[in-house]
Amino acid sequence: MKKFQISGQAIDVNSLKAGMQHDQAGAFICFEGWVRNHHDGRTVQALGYQAYAALAKTEGEKILAEACEQFKILDVVCVHRTGDLAIGDCAVWVGVTAAHRDAAFAACRFVIDEVKQRVPIWKKERYEDGSSDWLHPTA
Amino acid sequence: MDSETMERPASLTALYENLKKKYQFKFQLAHIRVAVDGVFVSWQHEVNDGSEVAFIPPVSGG
After folding, report:
1. What is the arrangement of strands in the sheet containing B53-56, beginning at the earlier edge strand?
2. Which mean pLDDT values do the consecutive 10-residue runs of chain B (62 residues) have?
3. Partner residue facing A138 (CB), from B54, B58, B61
4. Cβ atoms within 10 Å of A123's Cβ, excluding its own
């Protein structure tokens, strides 16, 4: 199984966590990014993610490989949603196992930060007033 | 996805600037990353016939 996945279906967080059980692991750290109902003071009703899938997978795998090199961890998995999501849905999931918690916390933070900066996935928010907009943080 | 075939441009930057003008892209080159055949490359990367070039605007995943 690829460690970085793009999924058009709801993320099954329980089975992802179960899949990371490891006898050498003393720590499991997980980050879940959820869809929130507001952005810059505007009410968000729903949102959609689009990915440039081929490049997103290559870049995602690269980030996970970097995490394995930089931190003393046992395993790392990341799943990112595409398609239409509702408020409260899990948009991105990162799980890390390590013998000790420090490395697991650091690697988890590294992975979500790098994914947000580097992986070609875009978010389109739909607002209460019926308008919608693609988000481009640095534009 | 719509596609368009064109003469091989002198460079990736020239290709972007031409398309930016033609389709009124709102992003300056400095905010764009470029990928050729599914891999991120530098703007100095050579363009070959048949290459698939993607211009990646700032991302907003997560």
Report:
1. B39-41, B33-36, B53-56
2. 76 94 92 92 91 92 92
3. B58
4. 21
pTM summary value: 0.90
Rounded to the nearest 5 percent, the helix, strand and coil shares of chain B are: 25, 20, 60
Min distance B13 CA to chain A CA atoms (Å): 19
CA–CA distance, A43 with A45 (Å, rounded to integer): 6
Strands annotated E in chain A: 4-7, 27-34, 38-39, 42-51, 75-81, 83-86, 90-98, 121-127, 132-134
Beta bridge partners of A88: none
- The answer to whether the CB of A124 falls within 8 A of the CB of A35 is no
- Which residues on chain A are in Cβ contact (under 8 Å) with B27? 136, 139
Do the chains contact at A117 and B59, CB–CB below 8 Å? Answer: yes
Q: By CA distance, what is B57's nearest residue in A?
A: A136
